[in-house]
Amino acid sequence: MNYLLIIKFLGALFQFEGLFMMMPVFVGLYFHESSVKYLIITAAAALIIGTLLRCINPGSNKLRSREGFVVTALSWLVMSITGAMPFWLSGEIGSFTNAVFETASGFTTTGASILTDIEAMSKCLLFWRSFTHWIGGMGVLVFMMIFLKSSADEMNLMKAESPGPSVDKLVPKVRTTAFILYAIYFTITIISILAFYLGGMPLFDSFCIGFGAAGTGGFGIRADSCAGYSPLCQVLITISMFLFGVNFKIYFLIVFKKFKEILKCEEVFWYTVIYLVAAGIVTINIVKDLGTVGESVRASFFQTASIMTTTGYATVDFDKWNSMSKAVLVLVMFIGACAGSTGGGMKVSRWIIYIKQIKRELSKYIHPRSVKTIRLDSDAVNDDTIRGANVYMMAYAMVFIVSLLIVCIDGFDLITNFTSVAATLNNIGPGLGVVGPTGNFSGFSILSKWTFIFDMIAGRLELFPVLIMFAPSTWRKK
Predict the structure, then answer these.
(1) What is the signed CA dihedral for 462, 84, 220, 209, rounded to 10 degrees?
(2) What is the secondary structure of 136-175 as a DSSP string?
(3) What is the pLDDT of residue 478?
């Protein structure tokens, strides 16, 4: 383990986070808010610490797989603690644990909140809170690769931070792949923000909601989340959330006019089918409660997109819906969006692999001598990917069970406890019961909140980089 190389990478992270804070600083200066000084202090400290750490000579710049996982896991923890400082120092979030919870929820694009009066917060910190969604959506280390010296070993960082059962480069160079991904991400974000603004949303709201939709986060800046916006804005937000839940490889193929390959993208096809079927079921089941078909369609398609892409925005209190509708939403919590998107959850591609594995095993019982290959997008899925998907499922179940047992100590009802863990581990945000769309996570104990922080970071990094941190062999020098 090259500890000095890890520290040097963390130095680069401090520098980038300090630069990211400049955007909310400008917002604070524009609105003449006193809280801006805490952003400036934190940004300056991050830049100074980062510059000093970058001066370290690690001896070797070779980033092995082990260092890649450790750097990724530590980066997201350090990023969350550093980003929490303005909230804590300003007193707008008085508890350090609550400040880290809110910031980790932002960077991991979870959208779970402990705030009870969102509209009382200063605009510059509201902007920073929403901007963390955009930073974490595509991954800060992926962004750093665009500017840092590229090497073949940096693929280890991309594999550790990017979601999905397998990660491939779009082009031969990692740095070029990172640039293309962020160029697409930035472009669609700007289009979404402009669409919201032209649809009648205030400019400040357009940026904040746009950041959340792009990162599939879910931090609203109003007490009613997105319920107060016009029907047109709600439709535009729905479209934006759905598009950011699509594998970004699709947009790459569109840009480079490889339309035939788009038709082979099995995951996106099933992602769309699952979304439409789930939204349709919810629509049928809530039409009696909401009164009109139009309102039911708008609400169901919005909430299904919000939960399936793990964004977490709300236009209605879906905790009051009937059992069937809530069951569908809980199911799509676990399905999630596409691999290679900014969405969370277990990913549609993994479920496709699981179903095809079941089908193959059943076929072997009937035809013992048959040899069948599992294919995804017409390509054979290698054994490492299948094994990784299976181990992920087992690790996911273990983390979920342990987290649930810890959270149950607080004494909330089972629905609240179960959906709170599901909402944080899948990076969704709202659950049901106490943590429903009109509730929050403020009532949980410090132990439970740190459990949720662990779940949010582990869920965003798809477990393995965080779990590897607890393996003693990880930290051996040789």
Answers:
(1) -80
(2) HHH-HHHHHHHHSPP-GGGHHHHHHHS-SS----SSS-HH
(3) 57
H/E run at residue 376: strand 375-376
Of residues 350, 371, 354, the one with CA closest to residue 462: 350
Buried b / exposed e over 311-332, threshold 16 CB at 10 Å, is bbbbbbebbebeeebbebbbeb
Task: Give the three-class secondary structure for 375.
Answer: strand
More confident residue, 24 or 161: 24
CA distance 248 to 181: 7
Strands annotated E in 221-265: none
405-426 average pLDDT score = 95
Question: What rounded mean pLDDT belongs to the chain?
Answer: 89
Contact 29, 36 (CB under 8 A): yes
> What's the predicted TM-score (pTM) here?
0.92
Maximum separation of any 2 CA atoms in the chain, in Å: 74
The residues, any chain, with a CB within 8 Å of residue 477's CB and separated by 6 or more, are 1
Give me the residue label for tokens 């939403």. 329
Task: Cite the DSSP H helix spans in 96-230.
Answer: 96-107, 123-138, 140-147, 155-161, 174-198, 203-214
**Residue 222 neighbours by CB distance under 10 Å:** 14
Give the C-alpha separation, 328 to 158, whole Å.
33
Q: Residue 292, SS3?
A: coil
Residue, of 387 and 447, whose pLDDT is higher: 447
CA atoms within 13 A on the CB side of 278: 26
Contacts of 240 (CB under 8 A, 6+ apart): 192, 195, 196, 210, 213, 214
Q: Are 143 and 150 in contact (CB under 8 A)?
A: no
Could you tell me the sign of the dihedral formed by the alpha carbons of 443, 444, 450, 454, in that order? negative
pLDDT tens string 20-79: 999 999 999 999 999 999 999 999 999 999 999 988 887 777 777 777 888 888 999 999
To which residue do tokens 């917060």 refer? 121
Q: How far apart are CA 119 and CA 303, in angstroms?
A: 22
Q: Rounded distance, CA 204 to CA 125, Å?
A: 12
pLDDT, one tens digit per residue, over 368-378 is: 877 788 888 77
C-alpha torsion sign, points 195, 196, 201, 205: negative
